[in-house]
Design brief:
Layout: E1 6-9, H1 15-24, E2 29-32, E3 46-47, H2 51-57, E4 60-63, H3 68-80, E5 88-91, H4 97-109, E6 113-116, E7 119-120, H5 122-128, E8 132-136, H6 139-149, E9 155-160, H7 165-193, H8 198-205, H9 213-223, H10 234-251, H11 256-272, H12 281-289
Parallel strand pairs: 1-2, 1-4, 2-3, 4-5, 5-6, 8-9
Antiparallel strand pairs: 7-8
Length: about 290
Amino acid sequence: MTDQLLGFIGLGNMGGPMAVNLAAAGNPMICYDAAGTADRAPEGARAASSVGEVAQTAAIVFLCLPDGPTVEAVAREIIATDGRIAEVVVDNTTSGASEARATHDLLAEAGIAYADAPVSGGASGARAGTLAMMVAAPEALFERLEPLLLPMAKNARHVGTEPGQGMAMKLLNNFLSGMAMAATSEAMAFGASQGLDMATIIDTISVSSGKNTAITDKFPNRILTESYDSGFATRLMAKDLRLYVDSCKALNAPHLLSDTLLQKVWGRMFEELPASDFTKIYPFTLERNS
């Protein structure tokens, strides 16, 4: 908790509940969202009319935005603000590691510290405050920020001191998540072809070596129930996987599996079901095989 006014820009599916939890911990806040602030800001928070107003009134500003280019645009607005007091930007957006480094450099030239701190856990985790947060920042900055991060992400981790390392951790996490969802969908389809009940597969694999978060969460809670409401969009999985593959290619890192996963699974699903929740991967897998 701090008496200092905190800024939060981006109040969407993730940023909205994150800001609510930050405010609920007793932190005074000023918030802004380009799509409309008054209806999205936490109760008791001040609704700003612009990015500049946040930069003029909050020393620490959190960003939870759609992508790297949007972050860069907002960072430039913060820098250009007359009378700004913003001195730290915490970037909860998922973007590329190179984009995070570029934003860090841009802000550093203006004397503003930067931490890339993407999150994992979906909209339900954002509401519950149980997100994982992968923070890259100098040790002293992380120590300063940690009490503010924990109300939003009880699993906040300091993953490195170099800009971009938080984004790198998030992208490799989402590659693993996307692979688990695709592989588990194929495995479930195979089980169904053998007359195995989905609930029985989930119960058995959850105590076996094939256990993963698709088995423990997505299939029992979102797919078996046919609700398909994880809150994580297929377009975001495709975006994050593309960022991961592009990063691998730029670094000449192994990417055979990730490139195949992007081109053959998530890229195609995004083309055919652009507005879908990513848990629709199971019926998509069945339909493609029929």
